[in-house]
Amino acid sequence: MSLQDDRKEYLNGELNDDILSANPREMFLAWLEEYRLLGNPDSTAFSLSTVGKDGFPDSRIVLLKEIRHDGFVFYTNYNSKKGQDIAVSPNVHALFFWPEMERQIRIKGHVKKISRADSEKYFLSRPKLSQLGALSSNQSEKINSRSDLELKFNSFKSKSLDEYNCPDDWGGYCLSFEKIEFWQGRRSRMHDRIVFEIKSNLEWDSFRVQP
Ligand SMILES: Cc1cc2nc3c(=O)[nH]c(=O)nc-3n(C[C@H](O)[C@H](O)[C@H](O)COP(=O)(O)O)c2cc1C
C-alpha cells in the first residue's frame, strides 16, 4: 500500500487578521457551532493528552459536555489511566480535528475536578444504560474476560432501581486553557495558524505563526 500519493488541497476557508482581536473562547464557540451544524454525531469529540508518572504522553478521545466561562468540561472515571495521570500532573493538551472543515484546534491547559454536586447532576441526566456502564467499569483496569464485565453489568441491571448513584470515582474535569491555536487549511500548504496565549486576567496575546 502506497500512501505517498494520497493528497488533497485545503480550500474551505481562511483566517483573516480580524481574528487576532477576537476572544478565543468566543472564537472556539463559533467554530464548534459551525461544526455541529454539519451533523457529525461525534462533533464534540477531542483527543486529550496527559502525561503520566513514566513521563510519556498518553492520548485518548473524550467528549466535551459543557463550555463554562472558565473552561471545558468532560466526564470520566477518576481512577482511570487518564485520572491517574492528572493526579500526577494537571497539565494536559486537547486536540480537536474537524476534517470536513479543514480545521484543527490545539489547546494547552490544566484540569481540575468539578464539584461533586455538578458531577452527580450530570450523571443522573445520562441514559440509564450509560449510568450502568459507568457503574460496571473500573475504567482502564485489567479484566479477565468480556463475560466478567457483562456479569457485573447485569448484576447492576437486575437491581432495576429508578436511580443509580453516581460512583465516587466518576465525575467531571474542567479544562482551563492558557494557549489555543486555530488552524485552517489553505491551498498549497500555506495554511493559516492563529495563536492566543494568556497574558493575565484573561487578556490574550495573539499572533500568526507560519504553517
Ligand atoms: C468517540 C469517543 C468518545 C469517548 N468519550 C469518552 C468520554 O467522554 N469519557 C471517557 O472517559 N472515555 C471516553 N471514550 C473512551 C476513551 O477514549 C478511553 O478509551 C477511556 O476513557 C480510557 O482511557 P484511559 O485508559 O486513558 O483513561 C471515548 C472514546 C471515543 C472513541
List the helices and strands and how they pair.
Elements: H1 24-37, E1 45-51, E2 57-63, E3 66-68, E4 71-77, H2 81-88, E5 91-98, E6 103-113, H3 116-125, H4 128-136, H5 146-157, E7 170-184, E8 192-198, E9 204-208
Antiparallel strand pairs: 1-2, 1-5, 3-4, 4-7, 5-6, 6-7, 7-8, 8-9
Flavin mononucleotide is lined by residues 42, 45, 58, 60-63, 74-76, 80-82, 139-140.
What can you tell me about this protein's structure?
It contains 5 helices and 9 strands, in the order H-E-E-E-E-H-E-E-H-H-H-E-E-E. The relative contact order is 0.20. It has a domain at 17-116 and 170-208: Electron Transport, Fmn-binding Protein, Chain A (Pnp Oxidase, Chain A). It has helices spanning 24-37, 81-88, 116-125, 128-136, 146-157; strands at 45-51, 57-63, 66-68, 71-77, 91-98, 103-113, 170-184, 192-198, 204-208. The chain is globular and about 60 Å long. The longest helix has 14 residues, at 24-37. The protein has 211 residues and is α+β, with helices and mostly antiparallel strands. Helix 4 packs across helix 5 (146-157). Strands 1, 2, 3, 4, 5, 6, 7, 8 and 9 form a 9-stranded antiparallel beta sheet that branches. A hairpin with a 5-residue loop joins strand 8 (192-198) and strand 9. The two termini are 28 Å apart. The site of flavin mononucleotide has 15 residues, from strand 2, strand 4 and helix 2.
